[in-house]
Structure formats: C-alpha cells, structure tokens
Specification:
This protein has a domain at 45-69. The protein is 41% helix and 0% strand. It has three helices and no strands. The N and C termini lie far apart (37 Å).
Length: 69
Amino acid sequence: MAAMRAIRPGMPVEELETPVLTIELDAMERNLARMMEALNGSSMCLRPHLKTAKSPAIAHLMIGAGAVG
C-alpha cells in the first residue's frame, strides 16, 4: 500500500488523493450557528452523533457552539 501524503488546510483540491472528505468550514460553522439559533428557547438540544459525523473534531466544534454531549 502506498503511503498517503499529508493533507494541509488550504491545499489545492487537485492535489488531494481521493476519496477524501472535505469540509467548507465557514459554511459548516454558519449552519451550526443557525441550528443553535433555531433551538434557542426550546427544550430540545443539539447532540453530536459520532456515527453520523465520524469526526471528533466536528463533535468538538458542535459542543463549543453549545451542543450537549
């Protein structure tokens, strides 16, 4: 198996080995803020689900924005 090259933030898409998950961080943070705003004042809460996100880093972003977990 060939070694994978390191992936860096801001790396040109053309240089990424595929398949690869990419995230538009600004859009994700905007969507997360919208979800938290929609839940504000309700008895419901946002809870990170690692089976869905498959990323501890995303779960930590969600918790930092006010999700419970």
